[in-house]
């Protein structure tokens, strides 16, 4: 086996993928798009241009073209761009076309995208700007690219200045509305879907929108685990919006630059971002393996803090209740610290509240799925250690319900594709890696005569590409595993170049919509080689790109003289051996099982301006005879029949339908009786799911004995028997 465990140094410099290791995985890192709520500013050097003032605005002016600075939205002292900001802007305009995998120039199409993204980053639910504001901004949709190339940030400051003006106006309106009575018997709706929302046409319409928003907030507070009602609820809401307005007023020029240039880079794809100096420092800290916290990747969505991913082996993972797509609305310290309202709070401030020393307790006010009533989760912070997210195996004696025969099935839980990078660089003989750990588990499985293996990647958000290649090599005898295309359009393939296999018997790969990047490369290669079958959600996450971090200071001066932030840019795209990209489409399952995750908006395709799927020429490789189509069709039929008669799967399908119905709702009734009835239904569903998980959670659990996982074993059992019947099942 030693030839299988050599250092894959030839692949080491390719890329690092995954939510644990670098810039891949299911979602952008914490600092990414819209992650930092900013403050207030005004452009210098103004040359006024007459425009029709917008509703409720003081006299407003705007930039005419790329060469003409934008005048002030209002006469308030706002920060000015730092001396280096224009230089950074010009550099970004050169780096994106040359380094981005698309090779696209920053043109008018991307300019219009960037303008939309910049506006959305301030006002995603369309609650502050008026339609007249947007109409004025849109006049400059084809010149934003010229501004960036010229290092002219006046348009960015002009829009920001108008926004802070609107925030002050809306907060004044909120203050007056909270002094009035609200009728909760009226059956009126509030729009909660950002795509269905429209900007108010005038001040009266904006006021009515806010009246409804406040009714929704008051109902939310009343329906929380710790109900807040009456004047206390009104005071809490007023404090929330006063705090919100004050934060915008403390915005720095670095914040505005990050927001503006990230809108530009996001116009290329959602994973390319600009990090300000402060964000770069935070990001460097967050990448440290010694960071204490809850072990969750967070993002910002519509002014709320959303859980993007749970890090395997972390505190949240061990706690068991926090899930992707949940929304965190409050944070408390210790067992009885005050619950701080974090709605509309900048993500970087939220992270500071949640982060803390290992062993201390943080209390999170969470809305499951983003729409439920608030529940309090007490999580003990912990340090994520490699051991906690390492591969673990278990042998299960499995018997089909209609048969007497029992099979030994080896089950491997692999939360990430990890590698001790420092040990690998030193060429230590025993450096830790997922390939080495899985190989040891497989050798133990063989000694105990397992009939087949299940490799669970359903929670695996990625990791090292080197490891994806070498781990694939445990199951195939040499050949291409992944192909990589860069900005020049050149394609390079990366092979497993080690002879032999560690396991050549039946293999089932379990995936979900959360399986991303390196997971997709492994599952896709196994599928292309016809080496095993993929079971789970209809498709994996669909992230087929890799990003690199370019230090702006080094790019400008060749040496790191100062922190000017960094550009995280998508520079390569991945393709499977048969030439298909994993981008957007992911890897399709051979046998689909129903799940709530498959309906969650957590895939690459749910992100705005995600790169398109494409293909390159296939790479020649061997084909195994482990996926006969007649057997696959038989397995599908048998699985569907079992699911149709299984009470727990029937209940799961009901919960999935309810989840989809709730997620698709574009508005919510503000009639208190209907509102509370809807929340009660959602809570009942959540309670059922938690009861189901309660007995199964624990740090020492490798295989969770659920009806879902039992069906995975049923499929695996029948798969092994089917291969044996065709004399195809082999094992070393």
Automatic annotation (TrEMBL):
Instruction: Mark out the compositionally biased spans (Low complexity).
Output: 57-79
Name the segments for region: Disordered: 57-82
Identify the keywords attached in UniProt to this record, alphabetized: Coiled coil, Hydrolase, Protease, Serine protease, Signal
Task: Describe the location of the PDZ domain by residue ranges.
Answer: 284-355
Q: Which residues form the signal peptide?
A: 1-24
Annotated Gene3D superfamilies: 2-enoyl-CoA Hydratase, Chain A, domain 1, 2.30.42.10
One GO molecular-function entry: serine-type endopeptidase activity
Q: Which SMART domains match?
A: PDZ (SM00228), TSPc (SM00245)
> In the Enzyme Commission scheme, what number(s) does this protein have?
3.4.21.102
List the InterPro entries hit by this protein, alphabetically: ClpP/crotonase-like_dom_sf (IPR029045), PDZ (IPR001478), PDZ_sf (IPR036034), Peptidase_S41A (IPR004447), Tail-specific_protease (IPR005151), Tail_Prtase_C (IPR020992), TSP_N (IPR040573)
Which top EC class is named for this enzyme in its record?
A: hydrolase
The source's domain of life comes to Bacteria
UniProt-listed Pfam families: DUF3340, PDZ, Peptidase_S41, TSP_NTD
Coiled-coil spans in chain: 672-699
State the similarity comment: Belongs to the peptidase S41A family.
The protein, known as: Carboxy terminal-processing peptidase
């Amino acid at each position: 086996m030693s030839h299988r465990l050599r250092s894959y140094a030839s692949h080491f410099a390719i890329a690092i993928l995954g939510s644990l290791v670098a810039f891949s995985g299911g979602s952008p890192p914490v600092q990414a798009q819209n992650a930092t709520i900013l403050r207030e500013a005004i452009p210098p050097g103004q040359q006024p241009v007459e425009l029709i003032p917008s509703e409720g605005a003081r006299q407003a002016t705007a930039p005419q073209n790329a060469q003409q600075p934008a005048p002030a939205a209002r006469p308030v002292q706002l920060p000015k761009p730092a001396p280096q900001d224009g230089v950074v802007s010009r550099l970004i305009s050169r780096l994106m076309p040359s380094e981005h995998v698309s090779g696209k120039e920053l043109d008018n199409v991307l300019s219009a995208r960037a303008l939309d993204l910049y506006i959305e980053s301030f006002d995603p639910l369309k609650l502050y700007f008026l339609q007249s504001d947007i109409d004025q901004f849109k006049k400059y949709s084809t010149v934003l690219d010229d501004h960036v190339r010229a290092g002219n940030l006046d348009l960015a400051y002009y829009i920001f200045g108008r926004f802070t003006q609107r925030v002050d106006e809306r907060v004044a309106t909120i203050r007056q509305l909270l002094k009035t009575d609200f009728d909760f018997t009226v059956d009126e709706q509030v729009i909660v879907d950002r795509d269905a929302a429209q900007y108010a046409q005038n001040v009266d319409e904006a006021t009515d929108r806010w009246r409804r928003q406040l009714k929704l907030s008051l109902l939310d507070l009343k329906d929380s685990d710790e109900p807040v009602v009456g004047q206390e609820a009104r005071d809490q809401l007023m404090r929330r919006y006063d705090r919100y307005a004050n934060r915008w007023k403390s915005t720095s020029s670095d914040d505005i630059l990050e927001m503006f240039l990230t809108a530009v880079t996001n116009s290329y794809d959602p994973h390319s971002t600009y990090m300000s100096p402060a964000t770069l420092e935070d990001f460097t800290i967050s990448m440290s393996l010694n960071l204490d916290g809850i072990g969750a990747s967070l993002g910002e969505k519509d002014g709320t803090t959303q859980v993007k991913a749970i890090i395997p082996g972390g505190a949240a993972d061990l706690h068991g209740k926090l899930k992707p797509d949940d929304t965190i609305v409050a944070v408390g310290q210790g067992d009885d610290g005050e619950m701080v309202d974090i709605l509309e709070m900048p993500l970087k401030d939220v992270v500071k509240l949640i982060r803390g020393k290992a062993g201390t307790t943080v209390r999170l006010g969470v809305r499951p799925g983003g729409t439920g009533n608030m529940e309090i989760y007490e999580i003990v912070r912990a340090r994520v250690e490699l051991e906690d997210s390492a591969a673990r195996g278990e042998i299960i004696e499995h018997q089909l319900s209609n048969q007497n025969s029992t099979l030994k099935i080896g089950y491997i839980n692999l939360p990430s594709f990890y590698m001790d990078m420092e040990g690998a660089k030193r060429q230590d003989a025993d450096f830790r890696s997922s390939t080495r750990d899985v190989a040891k588990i497989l050798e133990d499985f063989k000694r105990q005569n397992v009939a087949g293996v299940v490799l669970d990647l359903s929670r695996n958000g990625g990791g090292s590409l080197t490891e994806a290649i070498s781990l694939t090599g445990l199951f195939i005898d040499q050949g291409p595993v992944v192909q990589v295309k860069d900005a020049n359009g050149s394609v390079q393939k990366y092979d497993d170049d080690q002879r032999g296999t560690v396991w050549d018997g039946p293999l089932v790969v379990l995936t979900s919509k959360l399986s991303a990047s390196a997971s997709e490369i492994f599952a896709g290669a196994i599928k292309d080689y016809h080496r095993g079958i993929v079971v789970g959600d209809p498709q994996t996450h669909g992230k087929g790109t890799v990003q690199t971090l370019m230090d702006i200071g080094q790019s400008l001066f060749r040496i790191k003289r100062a922190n000017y932030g960094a550009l995280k840019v998508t520079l390569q795209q991945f393709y499977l051996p048969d030439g298909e990209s994993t981008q957007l489409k992911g890897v399709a399952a051979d046998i689909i099982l129903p799940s709530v995750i498959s309906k969650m908006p957590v895939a690459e395709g749910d992100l705005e301006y995600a790169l398109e799927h494409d293909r390159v020429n296939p790479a020649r490789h061997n084909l195994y005879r482990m996926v006969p189509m007649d057997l696959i069709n038989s397995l599908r039929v048998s699985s569907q029949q079992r699911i149709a008669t299984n009470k727990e799967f029937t209940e799961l399908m009901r919960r999935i339908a309810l989840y989809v119905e709730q997620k698709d709702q574009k508005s919510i009734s503000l009639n208190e009786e209907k509102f509370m009835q809807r929340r009660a239904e959602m809570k009942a569903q959540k309670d059922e799911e938690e009861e189901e998980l309660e007995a199964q959670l624990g740090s020492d659990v490798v295989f969770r004995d659920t009806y879902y996982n039992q069906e995975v074993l049923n499929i695996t059992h029948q798969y092994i028997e089917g291969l044996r019947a065709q004399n195809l099942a082999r094992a070393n």
